[in-house]
Amino acid sequence: MATLGDIGVAAAINILTAFAFFVAFAILRLQPVNDRVYFPKWYLKGLRASPLGGALVTKFVNLDYRSYVRFLNWMPAALQMPEPELVAHAGLDSVVYLRIYLTGLKIFVPIAFLAFSVMVPVNWTNSTLKKSNLVYSNLDELSISNVPLGSHRFWTHLVMAYAFTFWTCYVLNREYEIVATMRLHFLASEQRRPDQFTVLVRNVPPDPDETVSQLVEHFFLVNHPDHYLTHQVVYNANKLSKLVNEKKKVQNWLDYYQLKFSRNPSRRPLTKTGFLGLLGKRVDGIDHYTSEVDRLSKEISSERDKITNNPKSIMPSAFVSFKTRWGAAVCAQTQQTRNPTIWLTQWAPEPRDVYWDNLAIPYVSLTIRRLIVFVAFFFLTFFFMIPIALVQSLANIEGIERAAPFLKTIVEVKFIKSFIQGFLPGIALKLFLIFLPSILMIMSKFEGFTSISALERRSATRYYIFQFINVFLGSIITGTAFQQLDKFLHQSANDIPITIGVSIPMKATFFITYIMVDGWAGVAGEILRLKPLIMYHLKNTFLVKTEKDREEAMDPGTLGFNTGEPQIQLYFLLGLVYAVVSPILLPFIIVFFGLAYVVYRHQIINVYNQEYESAAAFWPDVHGRIITALVVSQLLLMGLISTKEAAQSTPLLITLPVLTIWFHLFCKGRYEPAFKKNPLQEAMRKDTLERAREPNLNLKGFLQSAYIHPVFKVADDSDSDGASEELEQEPVVVPTKRQSRRNTPVPSKYSGSISSSQAEDVLMIQP
Amino acid sequence: MATLGDIGVAAAINILTAFAFFVAFAILRLQPVNDRVYFPKWYLKGLRASPLGGALVTKFVNLDYRSYVRFLNWMPAALQMPEPELVAHAGLDSVVYLRIYLTGLKIFVPIAFLAFSVMVPVNWTNSTLKKSNLVYSNLDELSISNVPLGSHRFWTHLVMAYAFTFWTCYVLNREYEIVATMRLHFLASEQRRPDQFTVLVRNVPPDPDETVSQLVEHFFLVNHPDHYLTHQVVYNANKLSKLVNEKKKVQNWLDYYQLKFSRNPSRRPLTKTGFLGLLGKRVDGIDHYTSEVDRLSKEISSERDKITNNPKSIMPSAFVSFKTRWGAAVCAQTQQTRNPTIWLTQWAPEPRDVYWDNLAIPYVSLTIRRLIVFVAFFFLTFFFMIPIALVQSLANIEGIERAAPFLKTIVEVKFIKSFIQGFLPGIALKLFLIFLPSILMIMSKFEGFTSISALERRSATRYYIFQFINVFLGSIITGTAFQQLDKFLHQSANDIPITIGVSIPMKATFFITYIMVDGWAGVAGEILRLKPLIMYHLKNTFLVKTEKDREEAMDPGTLGFNTGEPQIQLYFLLGLVYAVVSPILLPFIIVFFGLAYVVYRHQIINVYNQEYESAAAFWPDVHGRIITALVVSQLLLMGLISTKEAAQSTPLLITLPVLTIWFHLFCKGRYEPAFKKNPLQEAMRKDTLERAREPNLNLKGFLQSAYIHPVFKVADDSDSDGASEELEQEPVVVPTKRQSRRNTPVPSKYSGSISSSQAEDVLMIQP
Question: What predicted TM-score, i.e. pTM, was given to this entire model?
Answer without folding.
Answer: 0.80
